[in-house]
Amino acid sequence: MLSNVLGWFSNDLAIDLGTANTLVYVKGKGIICNEPSVVVMRMDNKKVVAVGTEAKKMLGKTPIEMVAIRPLRDGVIADFDATETMLKYFIKRVHNGRSFVAPKVIIGVPSGITQVEQRAVKDAAQASGAREIYLVSEPIAAAIGVGLPVGEPSGNMIVDIGGGTTDVAVISLDGIVFSKVVNIGGDKMDEAILGFVKRKYNLLIGDRTAEHIKIEIGSAYKSGHNGRMMEIKGRDLFSGIPKTITIHESEIREALAEPVNAILNTIKITLENTPPELGADILDKGIVLAGGGALLRGIDQFIQDEIGISVIVSEDPLAAVIRGVGKLLGELDLIKQVAMN
Predict the structure, then answer these.
(1) Could you tell me if 87 and 174 lie in one domain?
(2) How far apart are CA 256 and CA 295, in angstroms?
């Protein structure tokens, strides 16, 4: 049924199949696709209306005959058919309909993914046209992507704060020594803001508004200036009428305290389970943050103050995983060494 999709490939691909965004890297060309992981379908005939950026614009705004789907939840496939549809769309866009043989595909996945979840990811990729599929844990991919010396007998600590999960790992000799994944990331931060505004102001806002607040005035650490404010619009829970309020950065920092502290505790647990020699290396080198959540203002300073180890936000943290899996495309021996069984 989907064999015609094979013709859409022209090169080997690397995919960061994320809860919030899906990124595609083509060998020899780099990152050529970065779009939200959202699919909009009609309810009656399951026909796809929009995927990616166009679909995200429709979140919270679809008529009753349409539904906006986030195919991935907490870093794993929640809707198989929608994931397959999304992968086919991105692959088609990447290759503009040119006809070539099915490629090798490497996909970044959370380190705590189960065998059943691994099978679901592979099946979705296979149904979308891939023939040779490798899964690589996101912390290893992110560490490779930011240039950490993962192959050396030395401790490297990476904290990948994604949309659905935060993946904390200590890596040495191309392998994970200890890792811990929690289902807390950018989505939970958005939910925390949404809940806070609802409780404090009796105002109902949508997911997109909550994300916009997080990006504009969200922070994890009190800065020296007076703090920013922004106007937000929503529906008054008592009157049912739309209204506008002004919200302050300090309020959003309060709202984000729970998910941010959960990430901090995950880092502490990982450090507690790290062998002393590798712990000493981490103390010397510091902790590297990757993923979209690393862009939250002051999160590096907050973690650094709490645990007393230097924290570095990687360059372009959103692209850390995709750059890592992209680098692996040209290194078959290393792929086989770091890929999940």
Answers:
(1) no
(2) 14
Domain that holds residue 92: 3-141+321-338
| Tens of pLDDT, residue by residue, the chain (341 residues) | 333 444 344 468 899 988 889 999 988 888 888 999 999 999 888 888 999 899 999 888 888 899 988 988 877 788 888 888 888 888 777 766 554 556 788 998 888 788 888 888 888 888 877 778 899 999 999 999 999 998 899 999 999 999 989 999 999 998 999 999 999 999 999 999 999 999 999 999 999 999 999 999 999 998 766 688 999 999 999 999 999 999 999 999 999 999 999 999 999 999 999 999 999 999 999 999 999 999 999 999 999 999 999 999 999 999 999 999 999 988 878 888 888 87
Q: In terms of domains, do 83 and 225 share one?
A: no
Please report, for residues 222, 228, 250, 302, the alpha-carbon distance to residue 225 in angstroms, rounded to integers and kept in the order given.
9, 9, 11, 16
Whole-model pTM? 0.87
- The CATH number of whichever domain residue 281 belongs to comes to 3.30.420.40
Of 145, 147, 129, nearest to 137 by C-alpha is 145
